[in-house]
Give the backbone structure.
Amino acid sequence: MNEIGSLVSLSARADAGFAPLRAPASGQVCVHWRLRVVEHLTARTELVHELASPESFDLVWGGDEAAPRLPVRIRIDPEASRIEATPTLHRAGTPGALAVAGAFGFRGALSVEETVIRPGDVLAAEGVLQDLDFDAGPFRAAAQGLELLDATVREALQFKPTALLVGTAPKGGGLPADWRASIAEGIAAQLEVVSGLHELLGEDREFRVAAQAAGTRIWDVREPPEVPLFSGEAYGIAAPIVLTVGNDCAVGKMSVSLETVRAANAAGRTARFVPTGQTGILIAGWGISVDRVIADFAPGAAEQLVLYAAHQGADLIVVEGQGAINHPAYGAVTLALMSGSAPDALILVCDPSRPHIEQYATPTLGYRELIALHETLIATLKPAKVIGIALNTRNYDDAGARAEIARAAQITGLPAEDVVRFGADAFYAAIAPAIVKRKPACA
């Protein structure tokens, strides 16, 4: 990577900034697409349309043999960039041309040139970095260690923040009324507002108008893209898929997924974490919050996520679980992930100290009951076994945690561990032989 003042040139891998896209003509999973549509009005008259996806995407530099260092992500705004790649021609009457006609409402005959940037495509880029401290790692401009401060928005502005994170997850996902003034103050200070609430702040007229006036934006992390119905394409993924499931919400399914990916990569795999909730999206920089997708399309959203991970070259895909199978409110999300992500194996994540589902009187289930329930339900779609028990022992001292881990292993006959407290490497080594591809029930 060469620096000439603020001008840099580099060769980097394309990656989604947020959720992956589908190219309109070819249907390929991609991070960016561009169309040149030639509409044939008469034998001598043509109308040319230029269309492109406006979503930002990332170039990822480093973290490989060519640049063995922590990866740096550079956000690309397609509307402010010139992106060059070889297009593919879809002639009039071909499936690709017909797909574009249907998607954009063209009525006449047309031909289409489609340019697609796929996840993992290596691009040569040159431009000006807004953040000149690009060599400091993935969290640039962080010269000091992280420090958590108790401060109002006004007090925090002295530290020159660039974003205001709405860090709450109340039941139902609404914005607490007494937070509105703080968010308005952040917008006035030109902070990007990042919210994981179900209530979309970008649809709030006061916030939307204020953000436009201030020249900043609101990122509603839970706002989903348009997704198709489940197609079954996930059944053809070559990489094995592991899904974390649990005995309740907020027991550590995301953390276990991340730790499993870290341990698998340390063991030589090319594992990919698939985020399905707002916090996972903020960590990974992409994903779909499946609990915000219309119920009929939620399995399709899960399928799109694992397809995207597969297109990125993963040889192991670990999907962040949500909810619990017997959760009165969120069980439907668990089922959507079980069907849509087409897992080959399950990791059961449990907080053994919880007697009932949080905020409900519904009892949590024991290890054997949970294993039997998940394996029975998923057997009708694509059989998958629970291959390990990951425990959240934060309410136990070390001796109590070790005793509960041993009890879970003895009851189930499966590897068990608290991978956050005691590490994931041994746990992954124990479950790795059981991570194998399985055929769907329809095969």
Summary: The longest helix spans residues 398-412. The chain has twelve helices and 20 strands. The two ends are 49 Å apart (CA to CA). The chain has a mean pLDDT of 87.
